[in-house]
């Protein structure tokens, strides 16, 4: 039996770990968001400015964009056969994931500090 690991194993593990990490984050976020939306603007702002909630949003957005990037990478690698288009698509997905992730974190930080 060979001890050589497939390069896809690490990717697979990261995707599963990020999915597991999102379970409690989404379970916390959805009811919290619904609760904050039922109140007025001040209550929603207070919810966002809570350090626990802002930290949760940071973790959720970071994990979400990381997980989405991993999933889209698998789809691109499996279904795009033109090598140039595949590489361009992978680069675009990674850049968009980083851009949208950082933008989301900056928005949470801006609301938290306001």
Tell me about this structure.
The protein contains four helices and no strands. The protein is elongated. With 114 residues, it is mainly α.
For the structure shown, list the relevant keywords:
elongated, mainly alpha, 114 residues
- Strand percentage: under 5%
Q: Uncertain runs with pLDDT below 50, 5 residues or more?
A: none
Structural class: mainly alpha
* Structure annotation, total helices: 4
Helical content, roughly?
A: over 70%
End-to-end distance: 59 Å
Quick gist of this model?
With about 110 residues, the chain is an all-alpha fold. The protein is built from four helices and no strands.
Question: Which secondary structure elements does this structure contain, and how are they paired or packed?
Answer:
Layout: H1 7-38, H2 41-48, H3 51-79, H4 83-113
Helix pairs in contact: 1-3, 3-4
């Amino acid at each position: 039996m060979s001890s050589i690991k497939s390069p896809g194993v690490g990717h697979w593990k990261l995707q599963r770990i990020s999915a597991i990490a999102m379970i409690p984050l989404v379970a916390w976020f959805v009811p919290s968001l619904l609760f904050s939306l039922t109140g007025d603007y001040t209550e929603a702002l207070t919810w966002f400015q809570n350090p626990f909630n802002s930290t949760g949003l940071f973790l959720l957005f970071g994990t979400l964009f990381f997980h989405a990037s991993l999933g889209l990478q698998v789809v691109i690698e499996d279904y795009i056969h033109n090598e140039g288009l595949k590489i361009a698509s992978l680069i675009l997905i990674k850049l968009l994931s980083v851009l949208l992730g950082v933008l989301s974190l900056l928005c949470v930080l801006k609301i938290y500090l306001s």
